[in-house]
Amino acid sequence: MVQSSKHDAPIFPPSDLLSNEPPLETYRHLKQLILLLTSLERLWRNRQDFFAGGNMSVYYSTRQLKSEDVRGPDFFVVLNTERKERKSWVVWDEDGKYPNFILEILSDSTAKNDRSLKKQLYQDIFRTPNYFLFDPYTLEFAGFELNYHQYQPIIANEQGWLWSHQLQLYLGILNEQLRFFTPDGDLVPTPEEAEVISNQRANVAEARAEQLLRKLQELGVDLDEE
């Protein structure tokens, strides 16, 4: 926060800041990000109390020093906020809210920082309750939950999934991709997958209706009778 003089009202930096993140390193990284973003937004399509961002800058310091004060998580979710489009996440313009959930998609150039500097930042400054790491090539996968100001590893269940208390969802690897699963263990589908499932169910229902119609006809039931 910058003050023009001792008696003037505080002057905040601009809040309509563009994200300033480098492009994702590979197509596999991009596909993973899109998969998580679209499946979560479809699952929560009736909710208006969250924001999910991908490869987007989080501005948390008014000094705006890129090397020190701006960090762009690969994927993050903020809860109890307005669901609307944003160019970046500007903490001082969002009632001081930081992400509740962060996932970093590891790469050769970022993995060291993701496991150390960023993890420390998210723990000590952001105070982000859930932090996850995933490598789309080696399938390294880990999750942490903030407990007494320190990140503690999240223990996997029998399927190897990790529970996100913030999202109330499991995260697990399926077909070499990180996916969301409901508390009951159901896969959270993307919009395209949900459409395929819906069409399959419609086809099954139609086939059953045709089967029932033939059976009734065999029994001599005239459905055209009034």
UniProtKB/TrEMBL annotation:
InterPro entries referenced in this protein's UniProt entry, alphabetically: Nuclease_put_TT1808, Restrct_endonuc-II-like, Uma2
A Pfam family per the record: Uma2
Putative restriction endonuclease domain ranges (all copies): 23-169
Origin: domain of life: Bacteria
Name by which UniProt lists this protein: Putative restriction endonuclease domain-containing protein
Naturally occurring in which organism (per UniProt): Aliterella atlantica CENA595
